[in-house]
Amino acid sequence: MSFFKRRATSLRAEAVTPTRRQLLAGICGCCLGSGLNVSPAAAQIPAVQQHIAAARAAAGSDLQAYMRLVQPLLPASGTSGPTPAQLRAMPPPAPFKAFDNLVFVGNHYVTAWAIPTADGIILIDALDNDAEAEHHAEAGMRGAGLDPAQVKTVIVTHGHADHYGGANWFAQRYGSRVAMHEADWAMMETGLEYDRPELGRPPRRDIVLRDGEIFRQGGTAIEILFTPGHTWGTISLLMDVQEGGRRHRAMLWGGTAFNFGGQPRRVPRLQAYIDSTVKAQQAAQRQEVDVFLSNHTGWDQAVEKNARRRPGGPNPFVIGVDATQRALTVMRECALATMAAWTAA
Hints:
Helix content: 25-40%
Radius of gyration: 19 Å
CATH class: Alpha Beta
Number of helices: 13
CATH superfamily: Ribonuclease Z/Hydroxyacylglutathione hydrolase-like
CATH architecture: 4-Layer Sandwich
Order of helices and strands: HHHHHEEEEHEHHEHEEEEEHEHHH
Number of strands: 12
Strand order of the largest sheet: 1-2-3-4-5-6-7
Structural class: alpha/beta
Largest sheet: 7 strands, mixed
Strand content: 15-25%
């Protein structure tokens, strides 16, 4: 019996525990907290409510996780979410294959995806720090039958420490290259937006990724889509994923929450985010993207989706072209509702 089959039952049990459901219901932190800071009056203006209604309609019953983007604009639920430290302290999920060429090696707070190729592994994001890189990402790869010494490239979706924090572990231990957009290389060199003592140090400038380029390694091609907003250098990724000989087109959205800090930068950043959702939606429609991924499990519900898998059944990660479009619509409408609240304040 394979590693993945042996772990299926225990992973399903872990993923649906009340503790995890409660944690994800109010999840917060750098990349999951919104930091909206709006007044109750601003939340009630008609334009805000119209955009929230549009977001709800697009979310349906399957994309409710993205509605947390406007949680501060909604009536108080009486619950509060965990801190990133609490999420990191949870035992990480067992590694799993979302697809034959896409392996989850993250934790309950932040995701790392390993892509095995004919010329080594591409790792998308590197978790919070060296300890997580070693004990979550590296150990996860070994548990999945992958050799972490073969990590040739770490692609960092944006310059927040919970995504680049473990990159130095792979660079120093295995000589892995680190790739990121120019804007976030510059940000990390001049003034970090998100940093805490327990998070890893920024990697040294290495590969610069550009909008529209195709990053290639070992026969795998990843299209770089520049989607600024979450940071000025956020990138999203478009790639083929396979399962049993069947190909799907996947998009990994590079940064979801509206944690832009105070005025004056928050309005232009949010406008960039809105524009990026339009750009991503057009690309996803054109390329018939039917798999929509995140770099935080609280958004794409990766652990829960894996727990729902059954032998011979449909892959829950394949949500379809329409649902991918709806996910981007939810994010855009939540951003528009937030913009309406901010500008009315």
